Structure formats: structure tokens, C-alpha cells
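for the writeup, i need someone to sanity check this before i put it in the appendix. the sequnce is what the collaborator sent (i think, or maybe the updated version? ugh). structure was predicted straight from it, no edits. if anything looks off just tell me and ill rerun, i have time this weekend
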Amino acid sequence: MDNNLTGNTGNTTNAANTSSTGSTAGSAANTVDNKLNAAREGVTQIGKDMRADAHSAIDKVADKVPPATDRLATRAHNGVDSVADGVNGVADTVAARGKQLSAAYQQFADTGRDYVRTSPAIAVLLAAAAGYGLSKLFGSRK
């Protein structure tokens, strides 16, 4: 029976030693856990602050950008409109000049045909002279 008591007493002593060592280790673990949690919370708070600051900066830029982009877009639209109006004006002018040239060519061709019909010999002589003159003008000089 004494061995059992001694064994029980030994176990009790060991349990007491374990519990006192465990509480010392446990308090150290709790202190480390507390410090880690405090550091984690600090980092999390810094992240939240940085995020809030970034959103604030983005909101400020976003508030300033739309008026600038609206102004730029308005100027760009006005520029495009003025260029388009100018191009339309040029296109109308070119179309009108094209019609005038076509009419002038038609009149010149009709006049030339009438002249050839009325004076064929003179027309052939003029064509020969024009051909001779052009050959001398553009011919090689060897």
C-alpha cells in the first residue's frame, strides 16, 4: 500500500510539476499569441488605413477627371465637326468642279468633232503638226 501511496504521491507531484511548468509555458504561449495577435491586428489596421487612403485618392482623381475628360471630349467633338464640315464643303466644291470639267470636256469634244467634219484636211494637217512637235519635244536626242 505504501508503494501505491508513493506512486500516487509521485504522480501527484509530477502532475503538479507538469501543471506548474505547463502554466509557465502556457503563459509564455499566451504572451506570444497575444503579441502575434496584436501584430496581426496592427498590420490589418495599417492595410485598412492604406486601402481607405487609396480609395480616397482615387475618388479625388475620379472627381477631377470627368470634367477634364468632358472638356476634352467636347473639344474633340467640335474639332471633328469642323473637320467634317470642311470636308463636306471640299467634297461639294470638288463635285461642282467635276461637273464643270465634264461639261467643258463635252463641249470641247463636240466642237472638235464639228471642226473635223467641216474641215477634215486642215484637221489632219494640224494633227500631223502636233504629232511632229510632240515627237521632237519628248524624243531622245542621240
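The helical segments are 2-118, 120-138. Residues 1-21 have pLDDT under 50 and may be disordered.
thx in advance!!
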